[in-house]
Amino acid sequence: MRTDRQAARARWAVAAMFLANGFVMGAWAPQIPLLMPRHNVTESVLGLLILVLGLGAVTAMLFAGRLIARFGGRLVLSVFSLALIPVLPMVVFSPNLWLLAAFMAIFGAMVGCMDVAMNAQAVEIERRVNRAIMSSSHGFWSLGGFFGGSAGAWVIAHRGSEEQSLLTAAVVAVIVFGAMPFLLPSDRAARIPANAPKGPRLFPKDVHVWLLGFLALFAMVPEGAVLDWAAIYLQKELGSDVFVSGLGFAFFAGAMAVMRFAGDGVRNRFGAVRTLRVSGLLGAAGMMGGALAPWDWLAIASFAVTGLGIANMVPILFSAAGNHPRLPSASAISIVTMVGYCGILVAPSTIGFLAEHAGFRPTYAGLSVLLVIVALLAARAADADGARRLPPAEARPA
User: Fold this and answer.
1) Domain that holds residue 232
2) Between the chain's N and C termini, which has fewer beta carbons within 10 Å?
3) Pick from 160, 162, 148: which is nearest to 247 by CA?
4) What is the pLDDT of residues 197-213, one digit of tens each?
């Protein structure tokens, strides 16, 4: 009974961590267009800066599995959630381009390690409660992104970008300090299969886990395209003002949040494979609609449809990794997260280059194809249902 109460508290604590992480990323989205005039850079240079952020995140994700295996998921998640608090003000207050690049790398590293740790904690909680919670956990990330993006855009428009970054740090601090004491206290955040290789490896020789990673990549590239470039697309090609342009990602994230809160029930009823297949097709339709939209409000609505489709794709793939039959959860999740988050953190730099030379409309239209590919390969995520098939005896005691 004590373990059940402990897992229930941890479930809400990890949801708060997802909320904090999403709030920072949502608040970051309306800051992006302001970097160009502030530092007098073009879309291509901004794309390189976003690449630096992505490289910091992906590099940190690569080592996150080892950190969790050595120090435990609770400690790793606590440390990097605390380190997340000052990163947005560091970026916004950067006095020159070189410091901006350094702080963006730090930003990415903190987000990256925190992301792996909170997903590993969510998989462990799924085992404890014997049901899926991953989609709703990611729903809290999307909810944070919605509030961070919409409220952040309003604060920037009325009070300025510097004050918005400081308020973001304050909100994140309150959430993180409130959640930390209730995280799952297990020092081993991952079940280690009996046939797993001894010791975590940076690059495990397992084709299946890498395929899951690339499917996550294909799901996250469109998400990164909306996060980093929707505001600029709405401003430059559809004539939106600062406030309306910030709503592109905000409504995308809000739609994701709504669907992710329903996602665990959908998965439990229809299974991970069918849910992933339908989600990919819906996301592809929304992305194509955003590419063809003649008005900003229609593009925003299309991005919301994209959010509905993408919502459950990444949680399903992360759950599939966490229940990999031949690798420790933290190791498999770190690989899938690392490869997948190239889509949301690294690929947008390439999208910036393509958009500058070919335009946003053809770029967004091309991204819809990636979501169709995920739908076609949905059967590869069948292990995602493994968490709720585990008997209670599989759960490790704290």
Assistant:
1) 2-184+201-394
2) N
3) 148
4) 444 455 667 788 889 98
Number of domains in the chain: 1
In a domain, 18, yes or no: yes
**Any idea what the CATH number is for the domain that residue 317 is in?**
1.20.1250.20
Q: For 178-201, b where at least 16 C-beta lie within 10 A, e where not — what string?
A: ebbebbbebebbbbbeeebeeebb
Q: List, for the chain, all residue ranges whose pLDDT scores fall below the cut of 50.
A: 1, 187-200, 387-398
CB 103 within 8 A of CB 90: yes
pTM score: 0.73
What is the Cα–Cα distance from 94 to 278, expressed in whole angstroms? 43
Supply angle C-alpha 258, 280, 149, rounded to 5: 40
Tokens of 273: 């494979």
- Cα distance between residue 383 and residue 81, in whole Å: 29
Query: Tokens representing 39?
Result: 């530092």
Is residue 194 in a domain?
Answer: no
Give domain status of residue 7, yes or no.
Answer: yes
pLDDT at 187: 44
Cα distance between residue 51 and residue 111, in whole Å: 14
Provide CB contacts within 8 A for 5, sequence distance 6+. Answer: none
With 0-12 / 13-18 / 19 or more C-beta atoms within 10 angstroms meaning exposed / middle / buried, residue 1 is exposed
User: Measured between alpha carbons, how far is 18 from 311 in angstroms, rounded to an integer?
Assistant: 14
57 located within any domain: yes
